[in-house]
Amino acid sequence: MEPLDALRRISFLLERSGQPSYRVKAFRTAADVVVKQGAAIPRRAHEGTLRDLAGIGEVTGRVITEALGGAVPSYLQKLEDETDEIVTLEPAAQSLRDVLRGDLHSHSDWSDGGSPIEEMVVTAIELGHDYVALTDHSPRLTVARGLTAERLASQLQLLDGLRPRLGSFQLLSGIEVDILDDGSLDQSPEMLSRLGIVVASVHSKLAMEAAAMTRRMIAAVKDRHTDVLGHCTGRLLGPKKRAQSRFDAAAVFTACAERGVAVEINCRPERLDPPHDLLKLAVDAGCLFSIDTDAHAPGQLDWQGYGCARAVECAVPVERVINTWPVEQLLDWTGRAR
């Protein structure tokens, strides 16, 4: 195995298992060094001078040396063994995952993601996706470096430049747009109309009174630009636990069904949103769904299994999962008259 492949795979597995970003960064930095040094890497490994290079440490140096020697690096093999135990799916969930064609919610280092767009795309292709939507945050979310209209326009130019290099793979333009207090969307209608996918999510005042939150969410669902209602309760699990927002879920999901807006099944382990009871309610309301990772790093693009398991548990009909659709059907749907 090539050292670069080993370092990238380790980064991917660390991200998928939710390891701290500083551990991931060490291997991504080492991968960058390998690319820049090129043919000098085997020579330095032979001389024992790899660690003289800034960005190569004891563990990353050992990974490079073992890969150059023709072996799967021991650290990589350990991660592979541990990961297999974490992500094993029941047959029905695996079958659903196998028919997913893409991911409609992902972030890059243009907002609060940890990697360049190109790295996210390469990983999506390696995972067998037909398409991925780049949905960086909108301007109000300053803590996440949300994109102003000007920065979003620049990003769209960059995507146009990347697409000719991607073959049949489709890189979809998108946004995770904040739902403002009154239910309006945090980006200009002109910019929203230029995008392939609009995921609308609540990120602020999550504890507002239930009736007001219901009005807020329904207003966003009725906006003609909204395609997907993102992580609808806003809850967080685990150490950063945050209670879910209170709203009339039946009314919100009825609005989604009437407007043809998909309810996101968010796969992030600390979200797993919506909860089972609300997901079943959305099924009964006749909603469409999108099983999305909300990935902020390449390895997190492989989290879709978590959402697939929940979809099967709640009897989500496969034909109502929009990212099982071919890209042509998906874009016909997002471009529908509303």
Key words describing this protein structure:
single chain, 338 residues, alpha/beta, DNA polymerase, domain 1, TIM Barrel, 2 domains, 7-stranded parallel beta sheet, 14 helices, 45% helix, 9% strand, globular
What does this structure look like?
The protein contains 14 helices and seven strands. The longest helix has 17 residues, at 21-37. It has two domains: 3-83, DNA polymerase, domain 1, CATH 1.10.150; 89-334, TIM Barrel, CATH 3.20.20.140. The protein is α/β, with parallel strands linked by helices and 338 residues long. It has a seven-stranded parallel β-sheet with strand order 1-2-3-4-5-6-7.
Number of helices: 14
Strands across the major sheet, in which order? Answer: 1-2-3-4-5-6-7
* Rounded Rg: 21 Å
| Structural domain tally | 2
User: What share of the residues does DSSP label as strand, in percent?
Assistant: 5-15%
DSSP strand tally: 7
Shape: globular
Distance between the termini: 51 Å
Structural class: alpha/beta
- Assembly type of the chains comes to single chain
Order of helices and strands: HHHHHHEHEHEHEHEHEHEHH
CATH-scheme architecture of the largest domain:
Alpha-Beta Barrel
Most strands sheet? 7 strands, parallel
CATH topology of the largest domain: the name is: TIM Barrel
